[in-house]
Amino acid sequence: MSTLVGWHVELEFTEDGHRTTAAAMVRLGDGSEMRARGYAMRHPSDPAQLRVGEEIAGARALMDLATQMLQKAHGEIDEATGRHSYPLS
Predict the structure, then answer these.
(1) Which secondary-structure segment (H or E) carries 54?
(2) Rounded distance, CA 53 to CA 30, Å?
(3) Nearest Cα to Cα of residue 20 among 2, 38, 44
């Protein structure tokens, strides 16, 4: 099996008090880049678990990237076919 294309995804996290931020970026095979952010807030009474905040913020950033990628793909489908395509929801 051969690999036709690969994507490079980067995630960076910052924590400021009770807030964790994830910055995500993906480089697609056509050279374009997409960026997104995700956030997580820890309730003051919850124990500090940096990993959990990273997972939530990271997942939210990746969900935003996935939405952007679907929109891009459907725009390309529409342009190629001259018809409107409908993303799955």
Answers:
(1) helix 50-81
(2) 32
(3) 38
The answer to whether 40 and 24 have CB atoms below 8 angstroms apart is no
Environment class of 38 (CB within 10 Å of its CB; exposed 0-12, middle 13-18, buried 19+): buried
How far apart, in whole angstroms, are the C-alpha atoms of residue 27 and residue 36?
A: 12
- Is-contact 35 60, C-beta < 8 A? no
pTM of the predicted model as reported, rounded to 2 decimal places: 0.83
33-62 pLDDT tens trace:
999 999 999 888 777 776 888 999 999 999
- For the beta sheet containing 33-41, the strands, ordered from the edge strand earlier in sequence to the opposite edge, are 8-16, 19-27, 33-41
